Amino acid sequence: MQGLMRTTPPPAASQPEPPPGTPAADDPDHSAAEDAARRAAANRSTGVSIAVNVVLTALQIAAGVATRSQALVADGLHSLSDLASDAIVLVANRHAHRDADAHHPYGHRRFENAASLVLGLLMASVGIGLLVSAVGRLQSPDAVPPVHPAALGVAVATLVCKEVLFRYLLRVGQQVKSSLLVANAWHARSDAASSLVVALGIVGSLLGYPLLDAVAALVVGLMIVRMGWRFAWDALHDLVDRAADADEVEAIRSTLAATPGVQGVHDLRTRRMGDLIVVDVHLEVDAGITVEAGHDIAVSARRAVMQRHRVLDLMTHVDPWRRPDGDHALASASSRPSPSDPPPA
């Protein structure tokens, strides 16, 4: 018995009891409440980030120009890129939680992945601009002016603010399990790290080594480019159907295998959809049972996975246990070399 089925729970199917406190699978009220909580947390934390970055951007750029610190101006431009990333987070958060429609049957959650890609590219471009500017200053060392001591106070204050903001955003992102919010938090951490480098460069300049301010700007640019590349690369992999982490895949496999009536699990495949996972899998059941019984087993397996894992959807294909499997037999036959094929080198 075989069949490709996107299972929907029958009203009277016998199911294993979920752990206490576990929400029912496919519970629309729970799903809506969870999405609402995620949106509220994203909007609240992003609003805080915008307020902090507006103040810091104005302070750093104005102070950098007044104190003749290129590194402080570079750090201000980094904070300005945070404002753009906050806007991206707000737009993506609004679109990613729209309901599925005819053109997007799996929903719109990949807006988060796409936004992370844009965020990474934005960071990399800002970093490249800072690198070009810093290299130009280093090529003309005589033109590098001394830095005013007030620049150091601004750099230290910025460092403290950015580190506090990072810890706040990371906590919120981990609480709601949002990779986009986590990425935005690490963007704030990159600002904190760059502010530390800027402070060190300003200290060097005040000690009589004005080139260290330009060197600090160069280091900040390299840090931003590296982090932007990592975010963009990870997001690109998610957009081209990268599998879930190996530990999570094995946890899903274990949940499926523990379902009563499931004799075996194979061809388990996963792909990311925003911060959730889409799964398709072949379940092996007793070949002597009815189609209805096989369907009920698949429903139980799907429900167990949806209860215990961050899975958006699960597609099951039921195979007979220890019986010839037509689709796999065809796949095996097609992979065998033809008698007329030349022998391998």
Summarize the structure.
By secondary structure, the chain is an alpha+beta fold. It has helices at 28-67, 70-96, 110-138, 150-175, 179-206, 211-239, 246-257, 291-308, 326-335, and strands at residues 3-5, 264-273, 276-285, 311-320. α2 (70-96) packs antiparallel against α5 (179-206) and α4 (150-175) runs antiparallel to α5.
Reading the helices and strands in chain order gives EHHHHHHHEEHEH
Q: What does the overall shape look like?
A: elongated
Largest sheet: 4 strands, mixed
Say what the CATH topology of the largest domain is.
Answer: Alpha-lytic protease prodomain-like
Number of strands: 4
Number of helical segments?
9
| Spatial sequence of strands, sheet with the most strands | 1-4-3-2
Number of domains: 2
Beta percentage is: 5-15%
In terms of structural class, how would the helical and strand content be classed?
alpha+beta
Distance between the termini: 40 Å
Main attributes?
345 residues; alpha+beta; Alpha-lytic protease prodomain-like; Alpha-Beta Plaits; 4-stranded mixed beta sheet; 4 strands
Task: Please describe what this structure looks like.
- The chain has 345 residues and is of the alpha+beta class.
- Helices cover 63% and strands 10% of the residues.
- It has two domains: 28-239, Cation efflux protein transmembrane domain (Alpha-lytic protease prodomain-like, Up-down Bundle); 244-334, Cation efflux protein, cytoplasmic domain (Alpha-Beta Plaits, 2-Layer Sandwich).
- The protein has helices at residues 28-67, 70-96, 110-138, 150-175, 179-206, 211-239, 246-257, 291-308, 326-335, and strands at residues 3-5, 264-273, 276-285, 311-320.
- It has a four-stranded mixed beta sheet, covered by helices on one side.
- The longest helix has 40 residues, at 28-67.
- The two termini are 40 Å apart.
